[in-house]
Amino acid sequence: MSLHVVVGFGPAGAATARLLAGQGHEVRVITRGGGAGRSLEPGIEHVALDASDGERLAGAVQGAVALYGCAAPPYHQWANAWPALAGALCVAAETCGAVLVMLGNLYGYGPVSGPMTEYLPLAATGPKGRVRAAAWEHARELHEQRRIRAVEVRASDFFGPGVTDGGHLAGRVVPRVLRGKSVSALGDPDAPHSWTYLPDVAGALVELAGEERAWGRAWHVPTVPARSTRQMVDLLAGEAGTGPVRVRALPPAVLTLAGLFSPLLRELKEIRYQFDEPFVVDSSAYESHFALRPTPLDAQVKATVEWWRVR
Question: Are the beta carbons of 215 and 277 closer than 8 angstroms?
Fold first, then answer.
């Protein structure tokens, strides 16, 4: 089988690497720490490398058919660290000829009215939205110049097994739901919000790496219809048998105060609009062209509760 290189071993990178290894591919994972402290997994090789060094990254990608950009700098360092990382991915793809599959999000659109499609302009004005948009715009330009082959796969907020501290329906929510405790939601807990199931993220990355007709543009990961935070908590509590669980909005003043001590919470101000108003992704373009479909919501909820119970 083929060699695939995955940069990053957070939730998305780990799920992608394991999916590829399960398909029989040779998988090389690039992280700063390599495999230190991790259990060996069949088919997955860990390499310690600073992925923002394009020349060294290119050396690690030699012979690969696809390069998956699943790493992300610390949230509060995005504006300064993303350009080097994204640029290095492009250098490696150009040097080695591997298809560059970039994991993106929806920040680049900025606030919009109505469901988000891939045809919307990348009109974000905040620093995190602009840096994510610029990363794809650069890769797309190189693709159009035929210097690389690239595709971006955009997901909404991750949900599911493997999503922990960084998820808005993860570490701050699911353990409390399992204990029947109340949870706090960022923004309006009744605003419709799209949640993209992590295994579907990995599935889309892998599928589009091998679909030449997908390259040169962005696609939204197949995602089930939007549900509010309150609705998702109700589903989780129902599966766990701990409901009903109270859901309350986190007051802006509390978020501001907490931001004095937490860089992560301080940075959430920029994307607060995503939780104050409907934040809905339209993935119909992907579903009309390719095979992957979103995992049914009841299966997502069941798997998530089971994962957290044994974690």
Answer: no
Phi and psi at 145, nearest 5°, equal -85, 0
Q: Identify any residues that bridge with 67 across adjacent strands, giving them in sequence order.
A: 5, 100
What's the alpha-carbon Rg for the chain, to the nearest Å?
A: 19
Residue 84 in tokens: 């080097």
> What is the side-by-side order of every strand in the sheet holding 3-7?
44-48, 26-31, 3-7, 66-69, 99-104, 150-154, 218-220
Burial readout 69-108 (b: 16 or more C-beta within 10 A, e: otherwise): bbbbeeeeebeebbeebbebbbbbbbbbebbbbbbbbbbb
> Cα(44)–Cα(86) distance, rounded to whole angstroms?
23
**266 phi and psi angles, rounded to 5 deg:** -65, -40
pLDDT tens figures, 241-260: 998 999 999 777 666 666 65
Query: Is the pTM of the predicted complex or chain greater than 0.90?
Result: yes
User: DSSP H helical segments within the chain, as ranges?
Assistant: 11-22, 54-61, 78-96, 127-144, 174-178, 198-209, 229-240, 252-259, 263-267, 273-276, 284-289, 297-310
CA dist 265 and 100 (Å) reads 31
Contact by Cβ (8 Å): 58, 81? no
CB-CB neighbours of 263 under 10 Å = 11
103-155 pLDDT tens trace: 999 999 999 999 999 999 999 999 999 999 999 999 999 999 999 999 999 99
d(CA 136, CA 129): 11
- The two tokens of residue 238 are 């129902």
